[in-house]
User: Fold these one by one.
Assistant:
Number 1:
Amino acid sequence: MEPRQSLVTYLEELKADRSFMERVTYMKTMEATEGRYAPFPDQMPKRLQQAIRARGIDALYRHQALAFKHVLAGESTVIVTPTASGKTYCFNLPILSHLLEHPNDRALYLYPTKALAQDQNSELLELIDELEAPIRCFTYDGDTSPTIRTKVRKAGNIVITNPDMLHSGILPHHTKWIELFENLKYIVIDELHTYRGVFGSHVANVIRRLRRICHYYGSDPVFIMTSATIANPKELAERLIEKPVTLIDDNGAPTGRKHFIVYQPPIVNAQLGIRRSATLETKQLASRFIKKKFQTIVFARSRVRVEVLLTYLRSLVRHELGPKSIEGYRGGYLPTERRDIERRLRKGEITGIVSTNALELGVDIGQLQVCIMNGYPGTIASLWQQAGRAGRRQDDALIILVASSGMLDQYVAERPELFLNQSPEAARLDPDNLIIAVDHIKCAAFELPFRQGEAFGTLETEDILEYLVEERVLHQRGERFYWMNDAFPAHEISLRSSDQENVVIVDQTEVPNRVIGEMDTFSAMTLLHDEAIYLHGADQYQVETLDFEEKKAFVRAVDVDYYTDANFSVDLSVLEEDESYSNDAFSVARGDVSVRGMATMFKKIKFGTHENIGSGPIHLPEREIHTTGVWFTLPATSASSTELEQVLEGVANSLRRVAPLYLMCDASDVFVVPQVKATHTQKPTIYLYDRYPGGVGLASSIYKQRSIMLRAARDSIETCPCQDGCPACIGMVGLADEKERTVSMLTEMEKELS
Amino acid sequence: MKNKLRRMLKPTNQESEQSQTIEETSEQTVDTKTANEQAAWIEKGADILTFEDEWIVRIDQRYNLADSHGHRTFGAGYESLQLPHPPLALDVPLEQIIFFDTETTGLRGTGTTIFLMGFARFEKGELLMRQYFLPHPHYEAAFYHHFLTDIGEDVRFVTYNGKSFDWPQIKTRHVFVRERVPRLPKVGHLDLLHVCRRIFKGLSDSYRLTAMEEQIGFERADDLPGFLAPMHYFQYVEHQNPSIMDGVLEHHLHDCLTLVSLYDECNHLVTHRKEVSSRIGENIAVWLADLGINEQSVEHFHQVNDLSAEGWLRQGLLFKKMQDYQQAVPCFEKSKTFRGYIELAKWAEHIAKEPRLAYDYTEQAKIMVESQSLLASRKENVMAELTHRSNRLQRKCQG
């Protein structure tokens, strides 16, 4: 075997490779930076200082020392630093310092997932062990055995859990946790940036309930939050906990040298601006690095992509490295499978890993050398999180963004300064989303009766409480509202998706009824319909039947050379207009809309060539949601309806693609529907709406940022290298002057509606 | 705002026919309403108990010991409580033993309120049946104050699933009023659900309390199913009319009385005062053996005519534990299970010191395992163990 090459020398080799460099449109080396340090604070107990010293650490990073100071001064704090900057010390050091001196006090740690909670627990236990202090630390989640649950409740100084467990397992049983709530001094919320959109709006309400119960037991804990880089960490933190928050974003940790490359697949159709598939390019790049035994992580944007790439890569290196050296990782794998993969990654047994953004979060998988992103991950924050997976320990690292033909990708690839220099997106959540807030007010009323005039966080409750009385969920007597229902409300509310239940995926191939995964009902409509090809662990399954009533999909292993892609059609009407602005014949409005969605048909797409090789109908019920939206109304023109339709499509497609850049959401969270003659306005109209029932703040964000979004949409079409419009810019092959007309429509909209 | 709520939360809009009922009674003042409510309870023979500015309802009924519930009288239960009977022992004065049950608004969680609790208790030569009813969720301090004061500081609960349901729920709700009412007493607990599961094992698909009433010969007429109790309570809270609660109160009363008779029945079975089927006899014997009450267990085994294979094995193990191999060996032989043969092999090897015999028993055990349907992995383990044993024995025979 040839001796292992260093990444730096291999990079030199690559730079000399013309065929590689031809496709690199951007390359930047970010030099290593020195760390900035501060001495151990005086308030830090000697034994803790010793324990840290024993780990070879003689000083804190500046941001750690700052966090220590503010937290012990009783300020709620949010710390924003990149991956591998020692952020856990920012909260562990002040909390352990406090607990060493106040052994009866408690702290609660919240992690977005069980896996992250387990990681944190092992880390803390190690440190506590070195301290030889009587501090007890436990995780509390669905897997915690009943025998130790009592111990956790009565004696856990530090309880590590997730928001879902807090919501349905702790708060509704708060009387069993008196010791915790009476003595709760600190609450840690790690990975703050994940609390956005629907999930964030739910969690903000769970925090309202948590603070309400703390207040009942006479405690008022300090919050310590950490976040990946986003534009508005302080705003997000304050929105989430509804308290003033101190921001610490002065990173003092040293960083290793990073080489950042934007890689453009070659153009295969100059006229249409179509490039070769990014997946094919990713596959080739990844196999290059994996064959050289550089530990490489490949991020793909969807579960399907992960499985497709995994299949490709495994077959490529099977003989050289063996199939076990490459693994996939994504939601839908069972927890035990995931734990095993994480462990093998840390031990270096896995050379290549293909993942969705599931590995973006702080799951400890050790250091990797190369990170390849198959397409722009959707948000700048994600991009940096993913990039942080490479070179965690002051090592040279290589990060490659492989741009797809998609417009957002091209837009970002053309303007690397967008993520390199500029601050990333703002994360939004809306704790006052009516549907979400009402659900949590029910839970809160179950936990403690409401008093008349009592606010729920910053939300007035009067109307909602009266409504719940009318619905016979609550009973009012005098000044109080009592829970008067035989249900357990927290069980009916899931924090993670708009749907309460997941579809269970049942494999029929060998043993009958083996459960291999699950999926939310909304995704199931397009991914688990009858005859869909479901990919799991690089195995292909065909869905035999989807029992939508019983929430079960029965699948059987198959071996075919295609995957399936479903169409989703929507019908839309306006319920209520909240605000609007008009100028001339143009107007824009925001309000509530009703959307009826239905999966209609699916296509079979051949691997490799991406040809359409067949299709079939989908028979699933229509689903209706009420949500918030924004609609742009344009003047009726004399243009033919086909022409108008095409321009509307063009505007809609370009808006949809730039929306995620400004809203920090998935491309699938905002839907855009153009209508030539809308029922509501009787004029040409483009609707943008929030996928989640009730909306989570995306619509008002769009309304406020409309001019910048319209400009970005126009810009993205103008700079597209195609001639008359292509699938990457206006969403389809342009006819005649369509590209031009779409651009001028966007220009006019921006002018009239700013 | 409310329109928005209704639209968002109820897409299939049912017209709001409900809002009218709420206003209709609002002309009356709160005071007259309360007075009417209390008067209606008193008319039903209940007492109104007050505490601070709260009040609750208490309903007492007394039964003569000659009265019966099912095929025996309360007098029989009274006697049973005073017999020595280890597994069902409650070694406190009779006034400290309560046959206790609750009715709640839901299954669990902090927001689930207990609105009715009560007990049957022998005192002064009678059976007192006492129920506490919470007329409004706000009056829990009064509710727990009176209940806790009445039962005293050292009490034994006889319940049905009370260990994991009723008592934890009381603890939960007590937290809300803990500063105003007495502390929770130390309680001993006899949970008849666990007792019935052992005694009537294999005889019933369901161990619900009403299913057990077959054993005591009690049949309910027009019983209100327990799951409807919360609905009745919600209605009561809205309309304050005591007759809404009639069915629930009767259901709860029967639950408590059934506990008395069920206790009596179990006691009869355990103390050999009633002819039992082989199945029940064996169940009791095995249960007592598990509890380590060896002598009584032996007695029960002896009275069973027709033990199952498992029963013979368990009896054998009991004798083995008591080091009575003379009795244990025939039991293992009659058991004819692979585990029985393994026990025989151990005995033959280590006690009787006859390796050849032990070898034969081991081979016998292997045949039994082969013919039995066990989990594949377990079968593999057992076979490996047996093969190891028989190899060792073979060496011993030769050596």
Number 2:
Amino acid sequence: MRVGLVCPYTWDVPGGVQQHVADLAEALMELGHEVSVLAPCDDESDLPPHVVSAGGAVPVPYNGSVARLAFGFRPAARVRRWIREGDFDLLHVHEPTAPSLSLLACWVATGHIVATFHTSNPRSRAMAVSAAVLRVALEKINGRIAVSEAARKTLVEHLGGDAVLIPNGVAVSRFEQCEPLDGWPGDGGAIGFLGRVDEPRKGLGVLLDAFGELGEERPGLRLLVAGPGDSDEVLQRVPEGLRDRVVLLGRVDDADKVRAYHSVDVFCAPNLGGESFGIVLTEAMSAGSAVLASDIPAFRHVLREGAAGELFPVGDAEALARGAAELLDSPERRRALSAAARKEVRAYDWRTVAVDVVRVYETVLLAGNDRSVAVAQRVRE
Amino acid sequence: MFTVADWATAVSVVVAVLVVVSFYVSWRASRLDRMHTRVETASAALDAALLRRGAAVLELASRSELEPASAILLADAAAQARRASNGDGDGERELAESNLSRALREVVDQPGFHEAVSAGADGDELLVEVGAVAKQVHLARRFYNDAVARTREARASRLVRVLRLAGHARLPEFFDMDDEPPRFARLT
């Protein structure tokens, strides 16, 4: 089928929604569907062939920060032309609550429309203020998808109605194979961590306490930490003699992130809570890491009750140290966990998630194929 | 005293107000009309999804690999659901379709069922099909109830009730049923 995807945020700037749309588009094309993506782009020279630019986005204050959005009559005209030329069976707009391209698409289009809601902020002031306008503007949507239970709740609270839940996918193939960073993991073994280092709920402190213990016993063991935040504070927590064995990469780009996963013997996710899904875990599992994670519900679920990675009691540095020691001493156990992780993560792969999205398309189209997407008659240029 | 000019001003103000009000009312009416269309579209999709599921379950029931008790359970539930689809409502169809969901879950999720059906010709394809249509029912019902909720909300407004903007259109009803797909379909 011919699907038109609309992304409200600037294509050139990295972001969760942009990544989601890009990955979904690729997965849909792999399934044999024709896809065109419309997105605001500042630089139109380097776009993949299936992405169409709606022109540049304008920085405006919105929802407590400055967002780059596309609004006004010129982008609206671009949306109309794109719809006319695209001859789509179905339009799939993303985050139509943002005052940008997706909302414009809902306004000018008729026919089958599916929408995915990403925001999960139950107290979103922007959404509370604009709820009345949004209710009307989003009435044409035939099928609504939320990417998480929190996103669904946000949507229901502000706009009423209901949505089906289809989680974000992971581009497993992007993580599968990679060269480790130079000199890693090394003979003494290595443990890895990824996430903001100064966000207490990510639990790096627990891992550092455990490393203080492990590092004394194992002279070659190193700790690789990737993620933004104040590094001095991190080192303060480690005994002085061990500090040169804690390597802080700071903020890493996508390529180095993948390399980091492949650079350690044990990947540790010591989060204290607050995770709704565990995207970091699914990435590590895609890379085939032996995972050691705290036993919070989201992680327990993703790791299949411990079959695809070891679990330890939340916040328990001693248990973490014990679990890590066992894994470091047993290459067979690590290999087994790695194989299990690679197998179980397939459920979260975009290739799987996209099939669920296509099922939504088919359900919406069940009502009859006679109404393909067109420009609303009322609106004239 | 009122001059001719005053009268003209008064009349033109009244006319202007009337024009604005009538535009607003007609916009509200067309909005409501659009919502009713959406409910109808969603209802057609739900109907199609339910019929498809019934057909797929009947096909499953006719497989020779099934033991007779399971086959009868499935065929009976599917037949009841089909009969109820021509009924005049009163929750009869909701009940029959819920029973079909339950029967399907019990039969399909029993140990050994998959292996048995897979062994037959095109067995795997049929299982995938059954899983897909069961999920589709779940999706279609969400979308339908979503449309109904919003339409009922719009029709509850005072303006719509006083001016009878909904016309003769029936107040759409929620479709309440157990639409939980079999376990194997949830994991794929």
